[in-house]
């Protein structure tokens, strides 16, 4: 009887101990490809409820469980490349939330503390280590929701505290603390409505754009498919295109060469393609530099065969395009499928000068980083292009999350986004974040659309993420200071407080 009583009274063996993992699973279900956005609010609500009045060690453990149950299913794609790396990544990123939970007060200031500290953990996960892995995020869970319009005002990162606040408000309503719940939800709703009517730029001119998807089997790497086959597929698909377009967009790295592409035999094929379509061609190329280095570039070609401009990818995929701590990795895992040569990062804004427009380029992975779109738009980009290659990814998790990210980039920048992939998904997204057309996986598709070139800036583009980060830091500090000042000398650190 004594053992049963102890288990029942222990923080680890209560009904609430299940709330955190359930909350994590609900958040995972809100992220594409599942993408039922209200579940993010529900997941945050039960996660928040599981921390109420609990001591630090329990808050940390439960938040780690919430993070692990959120990330394990939504980052499952990583297991196909490296199972140990997948497990380490899930455990490590869930650890960000555990650390954040240590700073969340357990008293009445926990509402503000939870929103601020978890938001800061998300920010850290987006940026460290090795540049971060901003996939399976709270922000992309809201790309198709009404809350997503707030990105025009506060950017994608600003959606994170907004979702967290919405979840806290729902939790308070469920606990019958109506006044607190209504106030929190009213603030979140007001910000959403303000985002819906915030400036989003203005139209400049129409542009006929074709996005080419050569097709092929999904889940294959460059070691399994001859790069020349991929190149020919895109040549053949583009040959089906008429001459009623201004710009043709090819995917990322459909051509692999050694040295500058305009000095290779393949260059003539690119020139002939541009000439036949009577359009400017933007194509993704991987150029070998030496035995240890390559560069991932997008080149712009005019119908006369001139290379007009180029952009070299800035944000590179860790362990996919460059290998951090290469010497250590090669000693510990000599059989791991890491690239033999590292990509060299560029430093440009991403804005390409073309006679028909100034286009902002985000190569594949870069679409997950809002600062890449922002840099291009601030440099005059009137449309955003995302040449990408997700053909090696297992399942469609990365591809659907990429579409969600393209939607967020469109909303926060007030620009159309054209995404071109070799096996899917290729898509057109307007400045409101609406997916107007999207290809299927594996099919050959040449999709043509009249794109609206736009100018002007949204508030999110003007301000960027720093104000939201500073606000989260200030709020976390304020919650901790308030909690310490309000604690009576007789208070026990581990005592429950559910007020």
Q: Any overview of this molecule?
A:
α2 (19-30) packs parallel to α4 (56-74). Mean pLDDT is 90; it is low at 3-9 and 488-499. The chain contains 15 helices and 14 strands. The radius of gyration is 24 Å and the shape is globular. Helix content is 44%, strand content 16%. The protein starts with a helix and ends in a 13-residue tail after the last helix. The strands form 2 sheets. Strands 1, 2, 3, 4, 5, 6, 7 and 14 form an 8-stranded mixed beta sheet that branches. The protein has helices spanning 2-9, 19-30, 38-51, 56-74, 83-101, 110-127, 151-174, 178-197, 227-239, 266-277, 326-332, 370-378, 397-413, 459-463, 466-486; strands at 202-213, 247-249, 255-258, 280-288, 293-301, 307-312, 342-343, 351-354, 357-361, 383-387, 417-420, 427-429, 435-438, 445-455. With 499 residues, it is of the alpha/beta class.
Let me know the largest β-sheet.
8 strands, mixed
Q: What is the H-and-E element order?
A: HHHHHHHHEHEEHEEEHEEEHEHEEEEHH
**Radius of gyration in whole Å, from Cα?**
24 Å
Helix count from the secondary structure assignment: 15
Give the tags:
499 residues; alpha/beta; eight-stranded mixed sheet; six-stranded mixed sheet; 14 strands; 16% strand; globular; disordered N terminus; disordered C terminus
Task: Tell me the layout of helices and strands.
Layout lengths: L1 H8 L9 H12 L7 H14 L4 H19 L8 H19 L8 H18 L23 H24 L3 H20 L4 E12 L13 H13 L7 E3 L5 E4 L7 H12 L2 E9 L4 E9 L5 E6 L13 H7 L9 E2 L7 E4 L2 E5 L8 H9 L4 E5 L9 H17 L3 E4 L6 E3 L5 E4 L6 E11 L3 H5 L2 H21 L13
Parallel strand pairs: 1-2, 2-4, 3-4, 5-7, 9-10, 10-11
Antiparallel strand pairs: 1-14, 4-5, 5-6, 8-9, 11-12, 12-13
Helix pairs in contact: 2-3, 2-4, 3-7, 4-5, 5-6, 6-7, 6-15, 7-8, 7-13, 12-13
């Amino acid at each position: 009887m004594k053992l049963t009583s102890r288990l029942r009274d222990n923080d680890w063996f209560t009904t609430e101990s299940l709330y955190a993992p359930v909350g994590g699973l609900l958040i995972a279900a809100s992220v594409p490809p599942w993408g039922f956005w209200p579940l993010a609010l529900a997941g945050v609500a039960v996660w928040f409820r599981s921390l109420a009045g609990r001591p630090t060690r329990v808050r940390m453990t439960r938040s780690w469980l919430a993070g692990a149950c959120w990330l394990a299913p939504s980052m499952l794609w990583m297991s196909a490349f490296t199972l140990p790396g997948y497990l380490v990544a899930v455990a490590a990123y869930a650890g960000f939330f555990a650390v954040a939970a240590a700073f969340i007060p357990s008293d009445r200031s926990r509402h503000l503390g939870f929103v601020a500290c978890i938001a800061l953990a998300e920010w850290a996960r987006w940026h460290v280590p090795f540049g971060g892995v901003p996939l399976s995020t709270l922000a992309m869970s809201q790309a198709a929701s009404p809350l997503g319009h707030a990105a025009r005002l506060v950017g994608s990162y600003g959606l994170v505290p907004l979702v967290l606040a919405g979840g806290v408000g729902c939790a308070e309503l469920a606990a019958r603390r109506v006044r607190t719940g209504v106030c929190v939800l009213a603030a979140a709703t007001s910000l959403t409505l303000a985002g819906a009517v915030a400036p989003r730029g203005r139209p400049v001119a129409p542009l006929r754009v074709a996005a080419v998807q050569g097709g092929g089997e999904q889940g294959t790497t460059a070691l399994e498919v001859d790069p020349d086959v991929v190149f020919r597929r895109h040549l053949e698909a583009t040959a089906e295109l008429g001459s009623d377009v201004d710009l043709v967009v090819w995917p990322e790295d459909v051509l692999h060469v050694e040295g500058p592409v305009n000095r290779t035999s393949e260059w003539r094929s690119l020139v002939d393609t541009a000439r036949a379509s009577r359009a400017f061609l933007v194509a993704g190329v991987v150029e070998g530099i030496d035995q240890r280095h390559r560069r991932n570039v997008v080149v712009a070609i005019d119908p006369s065969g001139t290379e007009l401009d180029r952009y070299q990818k800035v944000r590179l995929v860790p362990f996919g395009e460059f290998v951090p701590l290469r010497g250590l990795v090669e000693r510990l895992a000599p059989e791991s499928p890491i690239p033999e040569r590292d990509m060299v990062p560029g430093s440009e804004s991403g804005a390409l000068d073309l006679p028909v427009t100034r286009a902002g380029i985000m190569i594949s992975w870069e679409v997950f980083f809002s600062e890449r779109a922002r840099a291009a738009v601030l440099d005059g980009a009137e449309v955003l292009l995302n040449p990408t290659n997700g053909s090696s990814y297992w399942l469609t998790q990365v591809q659907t999350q990429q579409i969600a990210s393209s939607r967020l980039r469109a909303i926060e920048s007030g620009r159309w986004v054209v995404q071109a992939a070799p096996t899917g998904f290729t898509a057109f997204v307007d400045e409101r974040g609406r997916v107007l057309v999207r290809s299927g996986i594996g099919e050959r598709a040449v999709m043509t659309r009249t794109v609206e070139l736009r100018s002007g800036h949204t508030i999110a583009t003007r301000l960027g993420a720093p104000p939201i980060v500073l606000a989260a830091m200030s709020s976390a500090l304020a919650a901790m200071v308030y909690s310490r000042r309000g604690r009576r000398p007789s208070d026990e650190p581990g005592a429950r407080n559910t007020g």
